[in-house]
Amino acid sequence: MDISCKGLGYEAGKTRYDDDKLNALRDKFQPKKFVPFYVDITEDDFIHADIIAVKRDSLLDVLIPDIEKCETRLGNAEDAGEKEIAQKALKCLESETPLSEGITGEYEKKLLRSWTMISMKPVLVLEEEPPIKDFIRMALDKSGTMLFYTAGTNEVHSWHVRKGATIVECAAKIHTELAKGFIKGDVAPYDNFMKCHSMADAMTKKLANLVDRDYVVKPADVIEIRAGKAG
């Protein structure tokens, strides 16, 4: 996940999320391979960011380019509907509200994204600069992103996916072939899984569930995918 910062003092570059749950899984299994979640922090690279993080007193630096685009659209638009949306967006921005928070209509959001409005991306506005661990957690929440895990003696791995993702979407995150050949998924809530020696043990103790492809994975679920050869 790419986070672009404005007015914040975080060091640019790849930064590991110090995830207490993942660390506990690592300590439990002592795996051969350990893969934590990382973010890429940049300064002012709003175009390529997944989420923008900004200090409150720097918020206008993010919103002004969108204000200028709205004013240009108002000056050039011949379509009454587009002009109305531009006026609505401009009013939102002038109240210092990012478009991602002030605009709710699906058509409006689609149109504004086509205009490459920066603040259509999630914007995390901070009064103070939190520790990096808290900052990444807040960025995950703001962007609608969650973590799930795969865990065992071979590997403990953190994966990120949108909140509300199905087990098949999570399988695709791990490997496209797992999604293509998906049969069933074994899913254990994190706290349940920590009481067990393995997913098989969790299933035996009825602390995990066998789920179909439409199951919605919860944050911090531990999963295993049963897959056949993709057709």
Count of separate DSSP helical elements: 10
Number of structural units classed as domains: 2
- What proportion of the residues form beta strands (DSSP E)? 25-35%
Tell me the radius of gyration: 21 Å
> Which structural category fits the helices and strands?
alpha/beta
Helix-residue proportion: 25-40%
Overall spatial form: elongated
Please mark out the parts with pLDDT under 50 across 5 or more consecutive residues, or reply none: none
List the secondary-structure elements in sequence, H or E: EEHEEEHHHHEHEEHHEHHEE
Q: Taking strands numbered 1, 2, ... along the chain, how are they ordered across the largest sheet?
A: 2-4-1-5-6
Oligomeric assembly: single chain
Account of the protein in words:
- The chain is built from ten helices and eleven strands.
- A hairpin with a 3-residue loop joins strand 7 (145-151) and strand 8.
- The mean pLDDT is 96.
- It has a five-stranded mixed beta sheet, with helices on both faces.
- The chain has helices at residues 20-29, 59-76, 80-94, 99-102, 106-114, 132-142, 167-174, 176-180, 190-193, 199-204; strands at 2-6, 13-16, 33-35, 38-43, 51-55, 123-126, 145-151, 155-162, 182-188, 209-211, 222-227.
- It folds into two domains: 2-18 and 38-126, no CATH class; 164-227, Roll (Ubiquitin-like (UB roll)).
- By secondary structure, the chain is of the alpha/beta class.
- Helix 2 packs antiparallel against helix 3.
What is the structure about, briefly put?
The protein is an alpha/beta fold and 231 residues long.
